[in-house]
Fold this sequence. Notes:
The chain is α/β, with parallel strands linked by helices and 317 residues long. It is built from eleven helices and nine strands.
Amino acid sequence: MIRRLKKDVLEQLPDKVRSVVVLEIDKKATKKLQTQMGRIENDHKKFNDSNADHNDSDKKESTSVVDWGQNEHLTVDEQSGVDALRMLELRNSSLMACFRDTGLVKIPGIRDYIGDLFENGEKFLIFAHHRQVLDEIEAKVRELIGEHYIRIDGETKEKFRKEYVDKFQNNEACRIAVLSITAAGLGLTLTKATTVVFAELFWNPSTLLQCEDRAHRISQNEVVNVVYLIGKDTLDDKIFPMIHNKIQVISKTLSGKDIEMKVDSYKECLSNRAVSASASETDTPLKQTDKTSKKEFVQSSLDSFVVSTPETKKVLK
C-alpha cells in the first residue's frame, strides 16, 4: 500500500491556517456546566472504585445471594457488576448531556461571531453538531441574509445536496453555508468559501479535518482560514486538548512532523480571551486514519477529568 500526503498530491493547494476564538459564556450557564462536570467527575471516580472492588471480589469465592428485580437472584459479585454497568450508563449519558449543553450555552457568542464575520463580505462555512445549535445558527443567518444561504444536515435529501452546493458555488449572493459536522463533512466541494468556522467540537479529529477540507481542496486558490469557537470554562476545555493530542498522533504517523494546532496558542488564547493564530499546513491526511468512536470519546473525555497528559496540563493550568 502506497500512502501519499495531500501536500505531495496537490502541491499548488494554498495553506490552511487554523485559529481559536474563545467565546464569553454567561456566568450562570458556566456555573451550571461546572456543576455538571463535577458530577461527571464524581461518577467517574465511583465507577473506577466500583471496578476496583469488583476485581478484588473476583479473587474470592462468593456464594451470597441478593434479590434483584422481581424474580432474579444475583450473587454479590453479579450485583456489583450490574451496579458498575448502570454507573457506566449514567456517566456516559451525563457526559453527552454536558456536551450538548456546552453547545447551547455558546449560542449567544456564536451568533455574535457570525454577525461580525458577515460584515467582512466573504463567503464562509459554519459547522455544528447538535440540531438546536444548527437551528439557532440558521435563525441568525436568516436575520442577516434572508434566503441567501444553504443548510445541509442529516435530513437533507441527496437530490437537494448538489442543488445547494451549486447555489453556494455559483450564486454570489449566497454567502453562508450552515452545515452538520456528521452529514456534510464528506463529498461536498464548497471552495468558494475561504473561511471555515466550527461552532462546536466533535469527538473524531478526522471528521473535523474532513469538514475543513470542504473548502480546502482542488479549485481553491485562496488561503483557507479555519476557526474553532471554544467556550471558556465549558466541556470544550476538556475536549479541545484531547482533539489536539489525537491530531498530533495522526500527523506524526503520516508525516513524522507536528503540523497541527499549537497548544501554546490555545493557552494564550484562554488567558487573553483573544483570537490566536495557530499553524498553517497543507499536508492534512487524505484518509481518515483516526478511528475514534463515540464510546472512545466518552472514555477519553471522562479520563481527562482525573488524568491529564503533559500537553493538557500546559493548556489548562
